[in-house]
Amino acid sequence: MSFRSAPSCETFFIPLSLCCDQQIPMEWAFTGPLTIARRLGAEDLDAHEIAAFDPERFAALLSEKPAVHRYPGSMAKRVQQLCAYLVEHYGGDAEAVWRDADTGKELLRRLNALPGFGKQKAQIFLALLGKQYGVRPEGWREAAGEYGEEDSRRSVADITGPESLAEVRAFKQARKAAAKADR
Fold it and tell me: Could you give the angle at which helices 26-39 and 55-63 cross, rounded to 10 degrees?
């Protein structure tokens, strides 16, 4: 398994961004961790610090204008739960979640166990790690399901620039329209 070198803050920002990626535009979700870091007066984020932060103060921090999320109070709770889980199970090291996973199935199990991550979000996370960061344990594409397909344009895992962002948005809109038509 290879892992493209990335700053520690980036590896921690990935799960936090994916945690925030619901009911808001992707760009907003993926700027959330950086906004939190800036509001804490830090260049990097620490799972221990966030997990131990006073919940009311943390919710207020995420609620400052512009809010980090559409539902800042709920998201503050989810982010703190995620950080507490990372502290308890991985010593606060987000990269440890995927660093030594031997198979895609094992990595998917670990990602699915993260608070706020269901099967779909875990599969998207796995595809993002495989496609963008070179984390490719045996069977990772199969474990990521349709999100692991080569050259797909289904999720954030497939975004490498403005053109692919537009393609992912078009795919999501078409999928929503099809689901609406099926009702």
Answer: 120
Three-state DSSP state, 138:
strand
**Cis geometry, peptide bond prior to residue 25 (ω within 30 degrees of 0):** no
**125: nearest Cα among 138, 174, 109, 32:** 109
Euclidean distance between CA atoms 169 and 164, whole angstroms: 9
Listed ranges 6-20, 89-103, 167-181; the one with the highest mean pLDDT: 89-103
15's tokens:
């799960």
pTM: 0.89
Residue 58 to residue 96: CA distance in whole angstroms = 25
Query: What letter represents residue 48's amino acid?
Result: H
d(CA 90, CA 4): 20
